[in-house]
Design goal:
This protein has a single domain, classed as Alpha/alpha barrel (Glycosyltransferase). Helix content is about 50%, strand content about 10%. Strand 8 and strand 9 form a beta hairpin. The structure holds glycine.
Length: about 400
Amino acid sequence: MNKWILISLLLFSWIPSRKNDLVQDNAKFADKQMRAMLQQLDGSIDSFPHAIYPDGKLKLVDIYGWTSGFFPGSLWLAYQLNNKDTFLLNHAIEWTNKLEPVKNLTSNHDIGFMMYCSYGNAYRITKKEAYKDILIQSANSLCTRFNPKVGCIKSWDDAYTIGEKVYYQYPVIMDNMMNLELLCFASNVTHNPKYREIAISHADKTLENNIRGDYSSFHVVNYDSITGKPLFKVTHQGYANNSTWARGQAWGIYGFTMMYRETRQERYLNAACKMADYFLDNKNLPTDKIPYWDFNIGQLGYNPPIQYDTLKRSLFQRDVSSAAIVCSALFELYGFTKHQQYYKDAVAILQALSSPAYRNNESKNGFLLKHSVGNFPGGYDIDVPICYADYYFLEALQRYQQYNKKG
Ligand code: GLY
């Protein structure tokens, strides 16, 4: 046999096995870490793992914390990745069920994260009607926050800007794009278009007002709820009002890709691609593609609304959670565009996250990834493991595995 054919054959048989190794190794690791996490939790209502405190202690939230759905969601994803292990299944069911009262939450937009990551996965995997009903009720609760004059779901009540502490009349944040999946789901299963119409209106306004001409993003747009016009645009978790917060950009890439899946509107695919290109081609993105928490830290023309004590802590911290969200989104975006670079970048991020630089040491703290930044200006959850990084890492692994199965 010609030596080049032989080399090609060897190479092609090697690539899928490397893919399997990456997925299998991380699946086993997730199983081990989640068992360690479960051992530390006492099963009470305020026991949902959120992050790690600087002293190494586990930081928990109750069912109404915005991150409560990620641990149950991770249990469902780990269950699927580990050949339907019944131990993980039983805990996924138990931890999902605890969240049922959240279906009536109307005081913020986060119900989409909380219920779609938990009950959404539960329904996707089991098709149990009871889960579907809880998701529909959750979508109804989210719709109560929609104001047709603004055309958006209101993200927060009674909140103030960082720095000057100006009252937000009607804040709409990039993160809110993620909650639209719950609405699209509700329309799909009820055949009532009203949920999807709200999602489309919200996505269109986000496109109009949160996204800049170069497809970078403002974190917060504050609207006048009477006229429906934007009043001002600022950051809440990023470096400066005119900067691009890495996770806000990540939520946008994921959110617009998902909205394209749900509506097939080209403007959403275009936004997802351009936002992804901004992220991936950015000169401030480190070569391993794990971003700093903001793309404009310390740059001329970007003035933080608050003072940072740079002697206490360097501003240059990576945010692994943003990388994990983008990684998962890129696998889906590649499916729609067949743009090879998105697939290559997603795999590169997955490999980086799986390396000792970012994967947690096997440890009692039970998280999968380290080095995330939750809220730098707020001064908390900085350079620590965080539950949403783990969730999107597992989802990215699952999406990668599906490509693997398709060959
Ligand atoms: N509010 C969600 C986040 O911190 O990304």
